[in-house]
């Protein structure tokens, strides 16, 4: 039983098609995966058709939410949804609003850049996105392609990061709204790559009161010590442990690839069993 529960395709900001992702997962002998594209479920049915029963595909999604804090600041919080009914009308309405908000956000940023003489255009970004819902990776790639920066990371730091004069705050649903939509679609919600902030564990507990069920302990940005901390935290608070490579394809050296995050078989089994338990 080998699994990866955090994977992206070209339907969001990955470079692999669902079929390419599936073939690679089968090649490395994974038995279970979750397709968790940002703010879309379009890759799930395509992935299942490509898999043709050769491995189990869990219907998932990653919703990019914003937590509005008491001091007026905002923080990105990514909420993963697992075992969702991808056809759920309310969930699809929320995801459609997310994608439109993303387009509005990018158009505002492009306008700021154009006003300063930078050549970036929406057409360039959409060409990089291809099938996918536009993400930061597509924007930065377009910036590199039109000569605004020599690398994707430099493009991000210069033009997209919060410290940039071109930064535009993205509008989004709240973590609580995302959790409710996932739960109402028959799935369960897990917080993605929570990181090492000392405020995070109390915040996760507050979201648990709003229906959050899981914690992504296993992630490429988590050290071994942090993984162990989140495992203990999840077990202590009766939460589901989730994890995965957060793979976006083979094109970025700094991105983990499919199956590169190893999870113990008992944790994988508890994850798979959790869906049944939550629906009893």
Reconstruct the topology from this structure.
Blueprint: E1 3-7, H1 18-27, E2 32-35, H2 43-51, E3 56-68, E4 74-82, H3 89-115, H4 122-129, H5 136-145, H6 152-160, H7 175-184, E5 188-191, H8 200-208, E6 214-218, H9 224-236, E7 240-243, H10 265-278
Parallel strand pairs: 1-2, 2-3, 5-6, 6-7
Antiparallel strand pairs: 3-4, 4-5
Give the gist of this structure.
With 280 residues, the chain is of the alpha/beta class.
Name the features:
single chain, 280 residues, alpha/beta, TIM Barrel, globular
Protein model, in words:
This protein is α/β, with parallel strands linked by helices. Helix content is 42%, strand content 16%. It contains 10 helices and 7 strands. Strands 1-2-3-4-5-6-7 form a 7-stranded mixed β-sheet. α1 links the parallel β1 and β2 (32-35).
Helicity level: 40-55%
Order of helices and strands: EHEHEEHHHHHEHEHEH
Distance between the termini: 24 Å
Q: Overall 3D geometry?
A: globular
How many E strands?
7
């Amino acid at each position: 039983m080998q699994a990866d529960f955090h994977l992206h395709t070209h339907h969001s900001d990955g470079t692999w098609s669902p079929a390419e992702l599936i073939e690679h997962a089968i090649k490395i002998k994974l038995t279970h995966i979750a397709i968790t594209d940002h703010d879309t479920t379009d890759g799930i049915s395509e992935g299942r058709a490509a898999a043709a029963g050769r491995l189990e595909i869990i219907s998932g999604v990653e919703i990019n939410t914003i937590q509005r804090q008491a001091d007026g600041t905002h923080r990105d919080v990514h909420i993963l949804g697992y075992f969702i009914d991808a056809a759920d009308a309310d969930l699809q309405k929320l995801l459609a609003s997310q994608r439109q908000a993303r387009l509005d956000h990018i158009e505002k940023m492009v306008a700021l850049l154009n006003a300063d003489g930078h050549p970036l255009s929406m057409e360039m970004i959409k060409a990089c996105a291809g099938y996918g819902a536009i993400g930061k990776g597509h924007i930065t790639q377009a910036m590199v392609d039109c000569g605004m920066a020599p690398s994707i990371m430099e493009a991000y730091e210069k033009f997209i990061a919060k410290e940039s004069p071109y930064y535009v705050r993205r509008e989004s649903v709240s973590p609580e709204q995302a959790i409710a939509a996932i739960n109402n679609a028959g799935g369960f919600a897990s917080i993605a790559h929570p990181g090492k902030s000392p405020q995070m564990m109390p915040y996760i507990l507050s979201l648990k009161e709003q229906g959050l069920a899981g914690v992504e302990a296993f992630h490429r940005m988590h050290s071994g010590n942090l993984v162990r901390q989140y495992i203990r935290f999840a077990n202590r608070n009766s939460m589901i442990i989730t994890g995965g490579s957060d793979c976006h394809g083979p094109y970025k050296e700094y991105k983990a690839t499919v199956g590169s995050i190893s999870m113990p078989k008992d944790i994988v089994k508890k994850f798979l069993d959790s869906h049944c338990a939550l629906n009893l």
